[in-house]
């Protein structure tokens, strides 16, 4: 095994948030889907909080049209802060200021949304040759089930790149990137990825391990992305670049490992999953939970019968 102390640390996170969010139209006509509220915080704030909790305080957000709302959310809101402070509303003031203090935020425009691989490639200059994390802005990992810190630990131990894997119903695998894997000695939750295929038909899928929206990437991915032609849906797919890296050894930017995630995760760009996220997180909140659970119980027992 290579000496992990020789590896460069992971200090930066890239958050692609430039997709068109077509599954959520018309809500996403003038608002990025990453700004849709999950209870009372936009989905993107959970993602930035997750990166900060894993020690990544330098965050580059890849934005597109409608980027103003995203930038404003992580910036000061002087009028609002002044008003709340004049009213002595310390609790709301704290909540307004929270998003500003999380991390050092940077922004880059993707231009045309040519796919996730393309969104990652525009981060090259900012990342400056170090391994880095990628957190998809519409993928919410429950804060109680940490994943990113483990992925960084595995990357520091094994080098190369690390993806997050989740077991899904084989009937659902066509919605995800899918990984063929073999076991490693690093633990039951760590696999070597031997192949990757984007959104395969169930019959062609090499496994039911789906790639979810967290990555720790070796910077060689940028060289590979430059050579990656548009794939499925005419988009430059990150999966295709990772597939190439999975065939390489460490001196050449490979290999790719997967960390198996068994916690709670929501795709907030999908309407049904978005609703599940809100119901679950609201029901479990100390402030809203008691009232909401009482209503929910009643709703399920009366309205949902038959
Ligand atoms: P999705 O495929 O879920 O985003 O990309 P989308 O294209 O906006 O969604 P639909 O299918 O039209 O509803 C996953 C993540 O990658 C970002 C998205 O913002 C999302 O966070 N993304 C995707 C980009 O930043 N740029 C792209 O060109 C594509």
UniProtKB/TrEMBL annotation:
It catalyses: alpha-D-glucose 1-phosphate + UTP + H(+) = UDP-alpha-D-glucose + diphosphate. Its EC number is 2.7.7.9. Residues 12-281 form the Nucleotidyl transferase domain. It comes from Kitasatospora phosalacinea. It comes from the Bacteria. InterPro entries: GalU_uridylyltTrfase_bac/arc (IPR005771), NTP_transferase_dom (IPR005835), Nucleotide-diphossugar_trans (IPR029044). Belongs to the UDPGP type 2 family. The gene is galU. Keywords: Nucleotidyltransferase, Transferase. Gene3D superfamilies: Spore Coat Polysaccharide Biosynthesis Protein SpsA, Chain A (3.90.550.10). CDD domains: UGPase_prokaryotic. This is UTP--glucose-1-phosphate uridylyltransferase. Pfam families: NTP_transferase. GO terms for molecular function: UTP:glucose-1-phosphate uridylyltransferase activity.
